[in-house]
Structures are given as structure tokens and as C-alpha cells.
Amino acid sequence: MTVRIAPAEPPFPAGIQSSLEGLMRGKPPLVLFTTLARDPRLFQKFFAGGLLDRGNLTLRQRELVITRTTALCKSEYEWGVHIALFASHAGFDEAQVLSLASGQPRDTCWQDEDRLLLELCDMLHSNCTVDDALWQSLKTAFSDEGILELLMLAGFYRTVSYLANALRLPAEPGSATFPSSYRS
Fold first, then answer.
1. What is the pLDDT of residues 2-15, one digit of tens each?
2. Which of 48, 67, 90 is the last residue of a domain?
3. Closest CA to 51 of 59, 40, 43
4. What is the DSSP letter of 119?
5. One Pfam match, by short name (predicted)?
6. Are residues 79 and 138 located together in one domain of the fold?
7. Which of 131, 120, 25 is nearest to 66 (CA)?
8. Cα-based angle 102, 170, 73 (whole degrees, multiple of 5)
């Protein structure tokens, strides 16, 4: 497949270059980022909505939501970037990576808190809301601010998935690909 909108080429405007340097820490910028760099306003709006900083969630909680949401949205580009960059830091083992792509919250590789987050992602993806039972479970495990962050994170990465899928972004060098079980 061909990329639908070509990424911007360097040199980037000073503000975008500074943001890219801060995000990428010496590595080449992701195609998603350089594509958004075509429009400084959209670039800034996108990063203003980012939630990869230290917030109300642990790295593991954040990456469970991101990777499950992007897998549900069939965004191999974004799923692969997060698995490659964060899976080991989040403590995901091979069975968990496989389950994030094509498993279920009830898979035996998950602890109860992990299952709760996967159920949240699955419910948001299929219903765009959270039922009362799941809401009560979330309230026992997370602060109100944590729940808000979970909802925003899932929504933001659904948007990221839309972008990556519709733009037909090519896989980043070194990123993961969906397991073969995902494709069957």
C-alpha cells in the first residue's frame, strides 16, 4: 500500500524540530510525527493531547490501554511501535503480547487489574461507553482522575489508529508486527 499523504521533509520549523528532538531523543522521528509536521497547527494540537507523560497511571497500565486499543482498531503501525518501545518496560511477556493482539481479558496470563483495563478497552471499543458494573470495578481500583485519564487515553489512541490506518503509514524500522494468530 502507498502512503496517502507524504510526510514533511526536514528542515522543519524551529518549534516542530524542537518538539521532535524532545520526543525522539536522538532517534529519527516517526512517520506519523513527520506527516503531522506538514501543518504546525495540527502538529501542536496532536501533541497537546498526548498522554505519554507521568500521570495518574503506571507505565504498564498506560501501555495495556494503548496496545489493546490499537489492536482492536487494527492499527499494526501504532501497536507495533508501542510493543517495540514499551512492552519490555511494561513487563509484558510473550503470552501477554499475543493476548493483547488477539486474546481475551480472561486469558490466564493476566492479573485482575490487567483484566479490568482490557475489559474497559473492549467495552469502549464495542459500545463507546462503560456499563455500571465495569464502572464500579474501575472506581474501586482507580481515582476519578485515573479513570478520566484511562478514558482519554483509549480515545486518543483510537484517533491515532484512525490516522495511522487511513494514512496507510508504513511500519517503522524495528517495530513489532501483529502475531500470525491475529491475521487468521
1. 889 999 999 999 99
2. 48
3. 59
4. H
5. CMD
6. yes
7. 120
8. 35
